[in-house]
Design a protein that fits this description.
The structure holds two protein chains of two kinds. Helices cover 0% and strands 59% of the residues of chain A. Chain A is an all-beta fold. In chain A, the strands form two sheets. In chain A, strands 2, 4, 5, 9, 10 and 11 form a six-stranded mixed β-sheet that branches. A five-stranded antiparallel β-sheet of chain A has the order 1-3-8-7-6, with no helix packed on it. In chain A, a hairpin with a 5-residue loop joins strand 9 and strand 10. At the A-B interface, strand 4 and strand 5 of A face strand 5 and strand 10 of B.
Chain lengths: 112, 117
């Protein structure tokens, strides 16, 4: 069964610190992997999208990495800000393009 | 573009009542998706349309749920009769062909928070 597992479920860090969120998937083969940020009470917004041949993709202070061999992706946030407090969702598209498989997300809280 | 527009943003209703959620996708996007989000299950795909035609409705939980897309700029998700377990946030999203890398990016609306008492 195609699954996307994210860890940790929740995370609290101090403003200015770095953090890394993990995404493990069993979708194989796959077309692309995406990371979304969802602020409380809002819809998810895309951060990065990577095809199976890409290893890393950056968007400002957000850097996503992908290891297709181990079926793992990570999202690294550098110099966190209060506005980074949100849920981060990993999504994998299967190769056939018939399904988007969502992880349940990691809730990040950045405190001052 | 104003993005994906959903209404209402909040709906509180009593069990047994009919609920209709509405969505206007981004102009030019030929894919439209309805998702349900709960704390326990995360985001779940209910149904998606391509060029106004329902392609996959296997996520629709039961016959009480129905969705229509009468034209390229409007879709509805209807629950009749509603039950307390339907309480969730319902998201609409639209995209160009969604296997096309960046061009297949999903754009979500702000969601409709449904509470069934």
């Amino acid at each position: 069964k195609n699954q996307v597992e994210q860890s940790p479920q929740s995370l609290i860090i101090l403003e200015g610190k770095n953090c890394t969120l993990q995404c493990n998937y069993t979708v194989s083969p796959f077309s692309n992997l995406r990371w979304y940020k969802q602020d409380t009470g809002r819809g998810p917004v895309s951060l990065t999208i990577m095809t199976f041949s890409e290893n890393t993709k950056s968007n400002g202070r957000y850097t996503a990495t992908l290891d297709a061999d181990t079926k793992q992706s990570s999202l690294h946030i550098t110099a966190s800000q209060l506005s980074d407090s949100a849920s981060y969702i990993c999504v994998v598209t299967n190769q056939a393009g018939t399904a988007l498989i969502f992880g349940k997300g990691t809730t990040l809280s950045v405190s001052s | 573009d104003a993005g994906v527009i959903q209404s209402p943003r909040h709906e509180v209703t009593e069990m047994g009542q009919e609920v209709t959620l509405r969505c206007k996708p981004i102009s030019g996007h030929d894919y439209l998706f309805w998702y349900r989000q709960t704390m326990m299950r995360g985001l779940e795909l209910l149904i998606y349309f391509n060029n106004n035609v329902p392609i996959d409705d296997s996520g629709m939980p039961e016959d009480r749920f129905s969705a229509k897309m009468p034209n390229a700029s409007f879709s509805t998700l209807k629950i009749q009769p509603s039950e307390p377990r339907d309480s969730a946030v319902y998201f609409c999203a639209s995209s160009l062909p969604w296997t096309s890398g960046l061009t297949g990016e999903l754009f979500f609306g702000e969601g409709s928070r449904l509470t069934v008492l």
